[in-house]
Specification:
single chain, Nuclear Transport Factor 2, Chain: A, three-stranded antiparallel β-sheet, 3 helices, 5 strands, globular
């Protein structure tokens, strides 16, 4: 499976050496798609409105327990093509309520990767 390669800092498209759109493949592409799914608001992707987390409906400005967020992130990651299993690990929350952590992704080809958020 291939996907457009995104810059890790700006989350914007990248050109390849020839000036064409760069493409990611393999486990990296799967992990990038997991990161995109976790970052996007549910319904925001016009080509796949089922993708994403329900940030507006259930996460932002609501009191929510960490296990609920972990479950939602794991379900969203598990729905990505090429993911065999996903486990969300929360590592902290800052004073301004910014959640940090990662999703441990097992791909269908046996690779295990960390996808940070």
């Amino acid at each position: 499976m291939n996907t457009l390669l995104l810059d890790r800092t700006t989350w914007d498209l990248l050109p390849d050496a020839r000036g064409n759109m760069a493409v990611a493949s393999g486990s990296y592409a799967i992990c990038q798609n997991v990161a995109c799914t976790i970052r996007v608001f549910s319904g925001e992707c016009y080509y796949n409105t089922a993708s994403g987390l329900p940030y507006r409906q259930h996460i932002l400005a609501h009191t929510q327990a960490a296990p609920v967020f972990r479950m939602q992130a794991e379900q969203a990651a598990g729905a990505v093509a090429g993911v065999a299993a996903a486990r969300c690990v929360l590592t902290g929350i800052s004073a301004n309520r910014q959640l940090s952590g990662y999703v441990l992704v097992s791909t269908t080809n046996g690779d295990v990767q960390h996808v940070g958020f």
